[in-house]
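Narrative of activities, Objective 1.

The group set out to show that a structural description can be obtained from nothing but a protein's sequence at a throughput compatible with the screening campaign. Below is one input-output pair from the validation batch, recorded exactly as produced.
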Amino acid sequence: MLWQRVKTVLSQKFSEHDFKLWIEPLQCVHGDAQNIQLAGPDPYFCSWIRNNYLSDIQAALQEVGFTGGAVNLSVGQTMKAQPLLLLEAEKKQSQLRLPSMPVARSTIRTLHPRYTFAEFMVGESNALAHSACEAIANGDATLSPCLFIEAGTGLGKSHLTHAVAHHITSHSPGTRLHYVTSQQLTSEMVRNIKNNTMEHFKEKYHNQCDVLLMEDVQSLAGRTKTQAELAEALDILMDCGKRIIFTGAVSPRKIPDIDDGVRSRLSSGLITTINPPDRQTRCLIIERKARNNKLSLSGEIIEFLADRIQGDIRRVESAIIGLKAKASLHKSVPNLEMVKEIVAGIIGQRQELSTVLIRNFVAGQFNVSIEDMQSKARKKVIAFPRQVSMYLARKLTEEALSEIGKAFNRDHSTVVHSIRVISEAIVRSGSIRGQVDHLVERLKNQG
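Output recorded for this entry:
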């Protein structure tokens, strides 16, 4: 029989252990000149064969004269108890483990099911961090095998590290991945010191680690012993080209009370910053999260949320959940009044309009940075929003001209000039008048 001859060939290629565990359980349920149908005991078994042994099986088939095309794998309905027989036969030996799988297990925090690359909204503020994490997840060292992500709360650094862990565990289950926070690493080290088992700690992080993901690195500040052990582990991992991702609220150079050697190692790879998303990206994030929650939002509501909730994306999630609950309670579609009530509960009532608030709002509307607004640049794409901001600050606040100027690193004479320029432009151009009126309305409706 064809399959029996194939098994004879494969028995000569693999060890007795691997052959009995992975080839012997396979059954040939159909075979003709065109294809071979093999059956395994469960989906995982078939997936492992497909990823690790299919090419060997195809080569063995050709060796015994099979010239057909496809080798198909499926789960056999009568085979599900068979692996137990293998375990029984091997019970006097050491516990079976998967070939090519490491002895040491991965250490992975509970992963959020939606923190994947597919669910991450990429924008200008996070594009580099996203690309670097995808490269590390795929084992691509083009950028750097070592990465430090600096980001404030709720900007996506945990989402990206979860996404890396999701990708590696699903695509390369044999990878020894350790995903911990700096607090967990410290607790683990203290526990091993108390139990006099530091050799296990060193073995785990020195020799049984292919990928290290560590969050909240700034919490290492002042932990001298943990820093020393981490530095020793990093030297070994980096020398071997292992993949490492650190995240922190501040960059390595700003972490206080940390050894210079550790600081140098944290800075040895690519350092990238995730900034708060721009307005366009915030709108896309809100749309995505609303869609995930099966909530339909109007463009007006999406823009309102994007204007009011900036920075921490977790507050967007909170607003969406609250809005869904409120709409369900009232058995109606979400409206702006509902949204204002929900947002007020999350971030409080809108502050009184100020020059800084107006400047930041206008910068977002014109897609320019705060740094540009405060710079000496005179390009029209920057100068016009700056002048509009000064005009609106004079129109909508009681602040003195000198106070308005400070928000833009300008003196009061520049503010006077800007007000005159925009006032004249409003008279001459209906388009500019419309833009300014629209901005005034949007600002007044933020409360």
